[in-house]
Every structure is written in structure tokens, then in C-alpha cells.
Amino acid sequence: xxxxxxxxxxxxxxxxxxxxxxxxxxxxxxxxxxxxxxxxxxxxxxxxxxxxxxxxxxxxxxxxxxxxxxxxxxxxxxxxxxxxxxxxxxxxxxxxxxxxxxxxxxxxxxxxxxxxxxxxxxxxxxxxxxxxxxxxxxxxxxxxxxxxxxxxxxxxxxxxxxxxxxxxxxxxxxxxxxxxxxxxxxxxxxxxxxxxxxxxxxxxxxxxxxxxxxxxxxxxxxxxxxxxxxxxxxxxxxxxxxxxxxxxxxxxxxxxxxxxxxxxxxxxxxxxxxxxxxxxxxxxxxxxxxxxxxxxxxxxxxxxxxxxxxxxxxxxxxxxxxxxxxxxxxxxxxxxxxxxxxxxxxxxxxxxxxxxxxxxxxxxxxxxxxxxxxxxxxxxxxxxxxxxxxxxxxxxxxxxxxxxxxxxxxxxxxxxxxxxxxxxxxxxxxxxxxxxxxxxxxxxxxxxxxxxxxxx
Length: 456
Hints:
This protein is an all-alpha fold. Helices cover about 80% and strands about 0% of the residues. The protein has a single domain (about 5-455), classed as Growth Hormone, Chain: A (Up-down Bundle). It has helices at about 5-30, 40-65, 70-90, 95-125, 130-160, 165-180, 180-195, 200-205, 215-245, 250, 260-275, 275-285, 290-310, 315, 320-335, 340-350, 350-380, 385-410, 415-430, 450-455.
């Protein structure tokens, strides 16, 4: 039997790999489809999975609260397999048609990818034995994103070194790289089918508290500040983070003297090596520092580095070593900062009954930002009046806005999940909402409604 960490984590590894591998595939497709692979087409290929992810996060976040984490995770895993097969086998009689087929297939894949976010986070947190254990479980699950990113880089490096850059070999490269992403989903789909639903979720369903009966107006009224915090910071941060990650290879291609597919693949691995430890340092400090402090310190360092890149870009871009260090550090402190924190915080800032929905909405806001960053990046850097310098300054401004929202809207919750769940039920009772009519009893020690008001 696969343990629960792999049950949730491998799906997230799958997601991260599929999102990141397009980084190098973008360069491969540029070499393979020279005329057809325009800046707009590159943006479409990169953005398709992100748009699908937005829809997947919204839909499966909501369905996860209505019908359970387990059932929905089986569905997302199935979509990952189908989307992966379509992506790797994309083909039409024309090159342009093949690229459009690829865009559609990536959108389907993204729908499954998006669903994994709220479901993996919610189910991981609900298996925890304490708040500290909850944060550790969720952060370790998320850390497999870094492993997925790194694996995508390693396999890309192997492919570009194993095969010459002929049209046939380039075709093999991108198809094999996409096909590999199917394997983790194939491995875990059976175990997800036979897995048990989380006990915390089953208890809430037994109390008849679920999204079928909870009004959106109630959620917005009592949790608007939390939603602004988790969704707003995720939206702003992901504009920066995914523009960086999905176009790392393209950025490295303009830095220094060498811009071959081989050199870009090597440099891409170097960046991943610098960035990967950030996930596990964040896991180590997730309870020692707290999620809010991790968010603030990581975003602040990113802000400073982007300002340095913007001010001294003319000098920095001539040194690939110097740029790789600075660029890698932005990714390191993203992982030891807002990238980790935005994923963990919704699991502690929302009660069980709406956790998956609110996490899904927050994650969807992030992927909406990622789609903006992904689609806009090529257009920004290719604009002579804006270019890379303007892009770095824009990233710095987005980091500043993220810091401001974090200060005023984010909080660490070190209470047991049952505390917030009881407070949620008390709020429903106190307002006489229809959703509370089915409850058989009143909480023995209800917490004051001010708790939610203060923290939300």
C-alpha cells in the first residue's frame, strides 16, 4: 500500500513536472517549428495549462468540499493521464495544426493539474495529528513541486545531450518529455481508488456541514480578509514566479555568449540546483519561523534582487555566472518564502467545510496571475521600450504589493482544526442561517464569533 504522503505528493510531483517541462520544450519547439513557433504561439503553449489549471482549481476545489477529497482526487488523476497522453501524441497534417492540438491538450492536462492543488493540500492537512504536524505534512507535499521541477530539468538535459538537433530528434525530445509526466499518475491512480476519505472531512459531513448548504455570501462576509490575503498574494506572486519558471530557458538563452540548446539545458539545471533547497529549508522552518514570516522574508529578498537586476541589467546580462546566481537566488527565496507559504496558509486559515473551496479559489487566483505572467513575459521582454529591465522593475513592484497584503491580511493559525471548525459552526448558529437547521446539537464550548472576525 502506498503511504499517504506519496498518494498526495506524487500527484503534485506530476503537476510540477508537467508545468515545468514546457520550459525547455519551448526552446525545443522553437528549434523544431521555426516559422510557426512565433512569440504568440509560445505564449499560447505556455499559458494553456495554466488556464486549464485555473478552471480545475475552481471546479475541484468546490467539488472537493461537496463530494469528498478522495473521489475528486481519483478524477484529477484520470484527467492527468488523459491530458498527458493527448499532449505527448499531439499531431495533425500541418505543423501549425499540431501546435494548436498541443495547446488544447495542455489545457485538458492543466484542468487535472489545477484540481490537485486544493485536494492535495486539504487532504494532507486533514491527516495531521497536530497543527505543527499539519504544516509539516502540507509543506512536504508541496516540496515535491521542487523535485518535479528538478526532474524536468534533468530529463531535458539527458534528451538534448542524447540526441542531435535534427527535426526528427527534436520531435522525439518534446514528445518523450511530455510522455514521462504520465507515469506518476499511472502509478497512483489505483491506490487513490482504494484509499479512504479523511476522517476530518467525514466528521464534517456527518454534521451535515458542506458546500451544498453553505452560502457564498456567508463565506465572503466572515472570511473576506482571509480570501484577500490568500488569493491576492498568490495572484501577485505567481505573475512573477511562473514568468520566471516557464521561461528560464528562454531567459538564459539571452544571457552571456552561448545560447545553444545544450548550454541552455545545463544552465537551467544550475538554476534548479540553487532553487531546490529552498523548499526543504522552508519545510524545516515552517513551524519555527511561522508561515507569515517566511512569506515576508522571502518576498523582501526577491524585491531587492529584482531591483538589482533592473538597475544593473546591462552589466549583469553579459555574465552568465553572475546572472545564474542572482536569478537562482530569486527562485530559492521564492521557495523559502511566498511559493511555499501561499500553498500552506489556506489549509490553516479556513475551516474544513470550506477549506478545499477557498484553497481552490486562492490557487486559481495564483494561476490566473501565472497565466498573465506566462502570456505577457514574451511580449514584455520583446518590447524595445520595456524589455528585461522594465520586466525586472515590474516584478519588484509586484513583490512590494505582495508584502503589503501579507502584512494586513495574513495570519498564522496554530490552533487545532477542530477549533476553527467549531467556530465556523457557531457563526452559522449565531446568524440563524438555513444551513444550521440540520444540526442536532449546539457546541459544548463554542468559541466567540470575534475570533473569526479578528483573524479573518
